[in-house]
Write a structure and sequence with these properties.
The protein is mostly helical and about 230 residues long. The protein has one domain. Helix content is about 70%, strand content about 0%. The protein has nine helices and no strands. α1 runs antiparallel to α2, α2 runs parallel beside α9 and α3 packs across α8. The radius of gyration is 32 Å and the shape is rod-shaped. The N and C termini lie far apart (about 75 Å).
């Protein structure tokens, strides 16, 4: 007996969806969008600049120029097709990255940089120790007792006696700073620097962090980001 033919399995019908332009489609060649590419390059580049300032103690301005050029290159390379908006996009991302870098420098790198700079000056270190010793009342017992007795009574001493007392205070501070370990000097100076920066406030520190050279480097960075990225629109 002939075997009955098996029914063929139904072929899945093809469903066509019209008006589905809003569905996400993979980027050509697997590339990220220009904005995303610029962000992914701009943030790490800004952080690298902050780390350079943190470890060297110097804010090397031309690094900002490199940040802008890298952002422009990333935006240009990630472009799927020519677009006149690539230049302005890269320039805007460069501005955002540079501002982020400046904020991080002020909040993270500046205290370390200022501390390293102060530690190079013996007189300033001694002044920091004097402030710390007054705060913690850590002068020699005899001198500390004299200071406490005279607190609130500035007219008790003559000019000569006041001058002699100030000399004793400064001498002990200088001696304490000279005999201190590196770790102790750094601790005292860092505490003094933190108080100084706190007194300035965030916007005061941010304003102090900008200079005329920053305008030059920022201008070059933004211009480079614009020009390099704009090549992708040609």
């Amino acid at each position: 007996m002939d075997e009955a033919p098996r029914p063929s399995s139904p072929r899945p019908s093809t469903v066509k969806v019209y008006g589905g332009g809003g569905a996400s489609r993979p980027s050509p060649s697997g590339k990220a969008s220009p904005v995303l590419a610029g962000v992914l390059v701009g943030i790490p580049a800004a952080i690298v600049w902050v780390l350079i300032v943190y470890f060297t103690g110097y804010e090397i301005g031309w690094v900002a120029w490199g940040v802008g050029a890298l952002i422009g290159f990333a935006v240009s390379k990630s472009a799927h097709e020519p677009d006149a908006s690539l230049g302005p996009t890269a320039a805007a991302l460069a501005v955002a990255s540079l501002i982020l870098a400046k904020v991080l420098i002020v909040e993270v790198a500046a205290p370390s940089a200022v501390t390293k700079e102060v530690l190079k000056n013996r007189e300033t270190v001694a002044a920091m120790f004097l402030i710390d010793m007054r705060l913690h009342k850590s002068f020699s017992p005899e001198l500390q007792a004299t200071i406490e007795q005279l607190d609130g009574r500035p007219g008790t001493l003559s000019d000569a006696q006041r001058f002699q007392l100030e000399q004793q205070v400064e001498s002990e501070a200088v001696a304490r700073a000279a005999d201190a370990t590196s770790a102790e000097r750094e601790r005292v100076v860092r505490a003094g620097v933190d108080k100084m920066l706190d007194a300035m406030g965030f916007f005061g520190r941010l304003k102090q962090a900008f200079s005329g050279w920053d305008l030059l480097w920022f201008g070059l960075a933004i211009s480079s980001a614009f020009k390099v990225a704009q090549r992708g629109s040609s």
